[in-house]
Amino acid sequence: MKFKTLLVALLMSASTFSFATGVMTEMFKMKKQLNALTQAENPDAFHQAAEIFVTQAQEAQNKTPISLSAEDDANRLKAYQAGIQEVIDVVKKADSQAQQGNLDEAKQTIAVLDEMKKKYHQEYK
Description:
Blueprint: H1 2-39, H2 43-61, H3 74-99, H4 103-110, H5 112-124
């Protein structure tokens, strides 16, 4: 009986760990793409990095951070998802600017992502 209890506990903690690492993995990937966005030398490079960033952000949006436990209400999860959507919207706006030939303006637009990162990481990390 103890073995079964231990096995169930291990399986449950492994699934929690995989959710946590899933969000963390997406965040690390997003950070890498943010660096690519800021270092892009032309609109095409910016666009490629933006597309990857948005895909990774959407993946993170569909996962639950470890800081949001099962006891948390749905409003906190919705707020987390809205925060990720806000980040996605900023990158899409910047991508549009870059595609219109305004690479410097696009880079200025994504500059707000650092402050957003600080804000949301305090709340959900």
